[in-house]
């Protein structure tokens, strides 16, 4: 497999001969207003440009996976750029209906038994924060990729560390894990995605896995920088297994 980090949670995953685009946010820098009640209210989103053209990002994509519909995972630029016939996987029927209403014709809800062109795609649990903030953040999912010729990949999506992530790790034993780890927050309510301690919990639960940390510094409510996460990773002496890519960086496993 090859995993290219594009920006924020957007990935291009080459797996078993197929190219998957995950959580596309393809807008130009500064297109959207900042998330409210959060840091950097003077900065428009996305905070940074794509590392390549939109055409290059979507070139030869076979299928798209949208873990939820927040605009930093599924934006108007993606809706405009992607062909309406492309295969699109979503977390539930509500998201599927909305995307169909946006003109897309081949939308399928992920389950624990989804198979696409020989690749098993397993919907996984996630919690987009802790406590009361969950009501505002809404439902999310992750996805596990499995194929007989590939290592198992777990893209956790917008989730904090909690028992549901532990259960997915125990169940699927992924060899490669992607976590959203910018510790994004509003003014109240705590972490919406993983913070550095959450990343360490993932490492302790799957110490043999390679862990890729994304969703960093691309939208205004980020709270954990790459520099701080890398310092923590070095402090814990886990840098051989935990990676923090810049936009456009790829890993092959």
Total count of helical runs of at least 4 residues = 7
Structural class: alpha/beta
SSE string: EEEHEHEHEEEHEEHEHEHEE
Oligomer: single chain
Number of beta-strand segments: 14
Determine Rg (CA atoms, Å): 17 Å
- Strand order in space, largest sheet: 6-5-4-3-2-1-14
Given the C-alpha coordinates, what overall shape results?
Answer: globular
Average pLDDT figure: 97
Distance between the termini: 6 Å
What is the beta-strand fraction? Answer: 15-25%
Please give the largest β-sheet. 7 strands, mixed
3D architecture notes:
- The chain has a seven-stranded mixed β-sheet, with helices on one face. It has a seven-stranded mixed β-sheet with strand order 7-8-9-10-11-12-13.
- Helices cover 22% and strands 24% of the residues.
- The protein is built from seven helices and 14 strands.
């Amino acid at each position: 497999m090859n995993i290219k980090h594009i920006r924020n949670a957007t990935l291009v995953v080459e797996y078993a001969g197929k190219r998957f685009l995950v959580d596309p946010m393809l807008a130009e820098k500064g297109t959207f207003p900042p998330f409210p009640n959060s840091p950097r209210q003077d900065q428009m989103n996305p905070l940074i440009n794509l590392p390549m053209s939109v055409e290059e990002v979507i070139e030869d994509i076979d299928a798209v996976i949208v873990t939820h519909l927040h605009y930093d995972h599924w934006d108007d630029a993606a809706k405009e750029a992607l062909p309406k016939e492309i295969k699109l996987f979503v977390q539930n029927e509500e998201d599927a209906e909305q995307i169909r209403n946006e003109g897309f014709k081949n939308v399928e809800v992920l389950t624990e038994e989804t198979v696409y062109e020989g690749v098993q795609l397993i919907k996984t649990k996630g919690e987009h924060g802790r406590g009361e903030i969950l009501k505002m953040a809404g439902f999310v999912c992750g996805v596990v990729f499995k194929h007989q010729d590939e290592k198992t990949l777990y893209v956790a999506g917008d989730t904090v560390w909690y028992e549901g992530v532990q259960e997915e790790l125990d169940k699927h034993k992924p060899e490669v894990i992607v976590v959203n780890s910018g510790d994004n927050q509003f003014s109240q309510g705590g972490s919406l995605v993983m913070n550095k301690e959450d990343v360490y919990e993932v490492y302790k639960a799957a110490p043999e896995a390679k862990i890729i940390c994304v969703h960093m510094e691309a939208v205004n409510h980020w709270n954990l920088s790459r520099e701080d996460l890398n310092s923590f990773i070095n402090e814990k002496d886990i840098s051989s297994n935990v990676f923090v890519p810049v936009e456009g960086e790829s890993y092959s496993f």
